[in-house]
Amino acid sequence: MAVVEKRDAGIFLSVLADGEFHMTVPEGTPGAVKRVYKTSTGEEGFKWEKVITEVSGIISKVEFHEGDYGKNLNLTITDGDDEPLIVSLSTASNFGEDMMKKLLSVNLELPVRLVPYAFVDDKGKTRKGVTVYQSDEKIKNYFQEGEGKEAKNINGYPDAPKAKAGKTISTDEWKMYFMQARLFMIDTITEKLNLESKEENWKADESYDPVKGAKKEEF
User: Fold this and answer.
1) What stretches of 68-216 adopt beta strand conformation (E)?
2) Strands across the sheet with 85-90, in order?
3) Could you tell me the pTM of the whole model?
4) Residues 6+ positions from 45 with CB-CB distance below 8 Å
C-alpha cells in the first residue's frame, strides 16, 4: 500500500479552486495526477495527488489551527476502521466560510457527507462552498434563515453594512465586515463546541501545504 502524507494520525485533504478534495500521494500511486503550482516566492513545483469528489463519515474532531498563512478549520472524519481523514479548509476561503456556516447545524453523533463545489451560475458569478448532507438531507446555514432577498441573519451573525444616502460602501468597509463575520463564526463555533484554542504554528513540507495551497488557489 502506498504511503500518503500524514500528520497527527490522519490523512490531510484540501479543497482547491476546482471544487474537489485533493490528497497528496507518492508518484506512481494508481489514479494519481500531477499538479504544477507556484510557491508564495514564485518558485514552481509539482505534486502528485488523488482528486476526490466527496468524503463521508463522522466528524470526530473539530479544530482551528493558526499557521504561517492564516487560520484553518480542520475536521477529522472517521469511518469505521479506515484511516482518519482530516479535511483542512482555510477559514478565509469560500469553502472554509461555507463549512463554518453549516457546522453548528450538524449532529456530530451522526455520519455526514461532504461535497465541495465550484461553478459559475446563470449570472456569471462564481459559487464555491461545501454541501453537507446528513440523513439524505442538506444541512442548513446555522447563521442564516431563508434564501436570496428574503434571507435573514440569525444567531447573532453580524448584518452587512448599509450605505448612507448618496454614498456607496467602500471596499475597505466590505473587507472589514467579512473579517468581522469570519471572526464571529470562529468564536461562536469555539464556544458552542467547547474547543480549546490552539495557536500552534505547524506546516507540512513543500510537497504538501494545505494552507498555502488554499491561499493560492481557492480565491
Assistant:
1) 70-78, 85-90, 112-120, 126-134, 137-138, 144-145, 152-153
2) 33-38, 44-52, 21-24, 11-15, 85-90, 70-78, 55-67, 112-120, 126-134, 137-138
3) 0.82
4) 36, 37, 38, 39, 206, 207
Neighbours of 73 (CB within 10 A): 23
Return the ∠ at Cα 207 (arms to 69 and 16), rounded to 5°: 60
Q: Is 42 exposed, middle or buried (0-12, 13-18, 19+ CB in 10 A)?
A: exposed
Coil, helix or strand at residue 190: helix
For the chain (219 residues), the mean pLDDT of every run of 10, in chain order, is: 43 93 92 87 89 95 87 94 92 97 97 96 93 96 90 95 85 94 97 72 35 37
CB 139 within 8 A of CB 102: yes
